[in-house]
């Protein structure tokens, strides 16, 4: 997936090495993916590298991104898979 180079407010889903998903938010998507892969990201991803961004959404403000992150984290795996699939269409 091609990631946006510009800074913004993003909610993202990572696909971890063990097949699980991790959801977070950032204002620099490329840097955040690199941080996760360096083992310095979220505690969950440290032992599940390499990871890759498989989904993201952009928002005008950090508050909106954090709110969306909260909602995405509560989705089932199937619902997250549907989000990812729809983005690929």
Secondary-structure map with pairings?
Blueprint: E1 9-15, E2 21-26, H1 29-37, E3 52-59, H2 62-73, H3 77-88
Antiparallel strand pairs: 1-2, 1-3
Weakly predicted, low-confidence segments: none
Tally of individual domains: 1
Give a quick account of the main beta sheet: strands, pairing sense, barrel closure: 3 strands, antiparallel
Q: How many DSSP E strands?
A: 3
- Net shape: globular
Name the CATH class. Alpha Beta
Number of helices: 3
Query: Level of helix content?
Result: 25-40%
| CATH architectural type | 3-Layer(aba) Sandwich
Could you tell me the mean pLDDT? Answer: 95
Helix/strand-derived class? alpha+beta
End-to-end separation: 13 Å
Q: Order of strands in the sheet with the most strands?
A: 2-1-3
The topology string of helices and strands comes to EEHEHH
CATH superfamily (homologous) name: GIY-YIG endonuclease
CATH topology: GIY-YIG endonuclease
